[in-house]
Amino acid sequence: MSIGLIIAICLVAANLRTSLTGVGTLLPAIEQGSGLTASWGGLLSTLPLLTFAATSPLVARASHRFGTARLMVVALGALAVGTVVRSLPSVLCLFVGTVVLSAAIAFGNVLLPALIRRSVPAHRMQSISALYVTVMGITAAVSSGISAPLSHTLPGSWHTALAWGVAFTVAGFLAWLPRLRGDRPQASTGAAHSPVPWRSRLAWQVSIYMGLQSLAFYTVVAWLPSILIHRGTSSTTAGWMLFYYQLIALAASSLLPLLTRGHHDQRWTAAGASVAVAGGFVVLVSAPSLSIVACTLLGLGGGACLVLALTFQSQRAGSSGEAAALAGMAQSIGYLIAAAGPLLLGILHDTTSSWTLPLVILVVLSVAMAAAGHGAGQDRHVRHSAR
């Protein structure tokens, strides 16, 4: 495995959240500048997750027909176009560009585990997965932090700030162009297309684990400051607690491969990380003054769960084609669950005027994630468990 491949993988990872995480900090300015209501602003935030869910199942078949590296180059090109279109001074362009770039990111999300399965030795899969999760987390955090200041300093205000991440996209596009050589479509070689493993119990466990960890992450990002402010924390402190949560999650995702090196059976690791997430929500319910403990548990568990969820999409497949099919299923199911979670929990909060019931539900879902993770962590391949 070459350094060039690792850099190319990291450049793709840098594009998987950068164009999305800055939207939250710019949303008040977007609503004010475009005349969008809060409901339309909420739709703009949820649209990427719904697009992920709709697009992900299409990637495996397209990869089989056109070639994985070739499709990655096309996805990065589409991401650049979508990012630019979204930044144009038009509400229609704002939504159309969001759909285009989200579909491109969905392709990147699914193709990356397949590329890792094809190009990375088995004993390094988790390390490379952890590396790209770390890069993805760092660039996402940077995007959240600098988008608002950029909107105040660059000409074009929030329009220009929405497009700054296109620099990563162009770099990724250029890094993958040389890899088109030798990337032959599997269809032209006579290789069989790997169907989506809808009837595999193991594939469903991987998918549900992916979905529940995504739900926990997007719920924390969306509602943690509101929960803390509701319990008496200042808005400034609540913002720093969200930053601390992301910092701990990054540390956990980086350290996990070192702690589990050589362990092929990861059932108890996945279950234990999920229990840590459940513990964080329990602390938020029962002892809100200990928010630092809650964020530590949520970050440790959440960072580990993300690496495991992405690693399983490579490790539980027997080939790169099967990895693309499994990743497509896991991310379609996963992002559909993730899109529903924050919205439903917000409705529950509005209905009860309290965060107690939503947090209790998150505890229950985290326990369910532990059960799914225990199944997904077994050292088996999906094709061996298909029914």
Describe this entry's structure for a reader.
By secondary structure, the chain is mainly alpha-helical. The chain folds into two domains: 187 residues, Growth Hormone, Chain: A; 185 residues, Up-down Bundle (Growth Hormone, Chain: A), CATH 1.20.1250. The protein is 80% helix and 0% strand. It has 17 helices and no strands. α2 packs parallel to α7. The model has no long low-confidence stretch (mean pLDDT 85).
Helix-and-strand structural type: mainly alpha
Q: Please trace the helix and strand order, writing H or E for each element.
A: HHHHHHHHHHHHHHHHH
Rg (C-alpha, Å):
20 Å
Just name the CATH architecture of the largest domain: Up-down Bundle
Number of strands: 0
How many domains? The number is: 2
N-C termini distance: 35 Å
Identify the CATH homologous superfamily of the largest domain: MFS general substrate transporter like domains
Sequence-ordered SSE layout with sheet pairings:
Elements: H1 3-13, H2 18-34, H3 38-55, H4 59-66, H5 68-86, H6 91-119, H7 125-153, H8 158-162, H9 166-176, H10 186-189, H11 201-230, H12 235-259, H13 267-286, H14 291-315, H15 320-352, H16 356-376, H17 382-385
GO molecular function: transmembrane transporter activity
InterPro entries: MFS (IPR011701), MFS_Cyanate_Porter (IPR052524), MFS_trans_sf (IPR036259)
Transmembrane segments: 38-59, 71-88, 94-116, 128-146, 158-177, 208-229, 241-259, 268-285, 291-312, 324-349, 355-377
